Amino acid sequence: MTYTAEKPQTAASADELRARIPGWGADLDPADRPSGGRREVPGIETGAHWHFPDRQPEAWPRERSVEHLMLPPVFGTSCPPRGLSGAMRKLAYRRWSEGRAAHWLLLLAADRVDAVESHLRSFASARPDNPVTQTGVRAEFTHDGLGSRRGRGRPDVNHHWMDPLVVAGPWILAAVAGRRAVRKIAGRS
Q1: Which end of the chain is more exposed for a tag (fewer CB within 10 A), N or C?
Q2: In terms of domain of life, where is this protein from (predicted)?
Q3: Dihedral class, residue 86 (left if φ above 0, else alpha if ψ from -120 to 50, else beta)
């Protein structure tokens, strides 16, 4: 019975495995490991001058898994959460454990929302996104894209039929929605 004293032995012991499988457990003894002789040898300097490294300043409340009591000493700051996608990411970290599907699904959704936010921000800049050149469509014609797929047995060829839909679909939907919005606004005035 599980969790009781009568629980049967479900796994073989280390000695049984070693007798049955040649080489099993060869690295169980730290002295037999290649790094074993170099560990904790006096006189070998690691360069570490701390027991716990200095903590990186937290410029904003970073997202942190609910499983961890504190942030690691060093963490990334290149992509600060912002907008709706940032709020979704913070909610995913604040509310659900990393073991829950809801955590990861919300992070995936936040990534897609971030992509839309980035496209919208690009339209407000001097260099808006160009889906033709930035998605590699031009390379299909200039670098023999079709020839690189044909007759080579590449497994990724199976999903190529849907790539134009995935890449161009959101742009087309956004253009249609934008056109309808403009026409609706123009019709009111």
Answers
A1: C
A2: Bacteria
A3: alpha
